[in-house]
Design a protein that fits this description.
Layout (H helix, E strand, L loop, with lengths): L22 E6 L1 H11 L8 H14 L2 E6 L1 H4 L3 E2 L2 E2 L3 E3 L4 E2 H6 L9 H8 L8 E4 L12 H5 L6 E4 L1 H10 L4 E6 L2
Parallel strand pairs: 7-9
Antiparallel strand pairs: 1-2, 2-9, 3-6, 4-5, 7-8
Helix pairs in contact: 5-7
Length: 181
């Protein structure tokens, strides 16, 4: 197992790709990524089509997947695409998990979004799915604001409510699969 000092992403390939702090566990193939996603989401198959397609787009766009561990301090820096349930938790231009957390008190406590965030305060930690930059696909317009501004860095593909809940908690190391790492 690596220490936090032995982690990271070599940003020397591009001056526009920031350092991404992670504890890399292993390279994985896309079949393992999909199998993990399906296993972790077996209780909500009706919600799986959109994120599974996002994973496929990320695989085609970035390739190379890695399983990593994210530390509590790292969760707030992950970028989220637009997310709106009547209250713009994440604006069209995107925002970090930390910025979205500041808007949490504006959500209706009875809304599905708020309930889903609260649901993930239990001790179970499932994987989140990220990419090294936003996916760029016309069928996923929620990422357009991030693409248009040229954002490069860890970007949510699946697990938005979990990321917000776990950043609020600020004590959990989270397993993640990252496309392009």
């Amino acid at each position: 197992m690596l220490s936090k000092n032995e982690v990271g992403y070599d940003s020397s390939e591009s001056a526009h790709t920031p350092f991404i702090p992670v504890q890399r566990e292993s390279k994985v193939d896309f079949q393992e990524v999909k199998a993990t996603f399906v296993r972790d989401n077996v209780e909500t198959p009706e919600r799986n089509a959109w994120p599974l397609r996002a994973l496929e787009i990320a695989n085609a766009q970035f390739g190379d997947w890695a399983r990593v561990l994210l530390f509590p301090d790292d969760l707030g820096n992950i970028m989220l695409p637009r997310h709106d349930h009547g209250v713009s938790l994440v604006p069209p231009s995107g925002s970090s998990v930390s910025e979205a957390l500041k808007k949490l008190d504006r959500l209706d406590r009875s809304s599905e979004c708020y309930r889903r965030i609260q649901k993930f305060s239990d001790p179970r930690t499932s994987a989140v799915f990220l990419s090294v930059a936003p996916i760029d696909d016309p069928h996923y317009p929620d990422y357009k604001g991030l693409v248009d501004r040229g954002y490069k860095g860890l970007t949510h593909l699946d697990g938005l409510h979990r990321l917000i809940a776990w950043h609020l908690e600020n004590k959990r190391t989270v397993p993640a699969y990252i496309a392009g790492l």
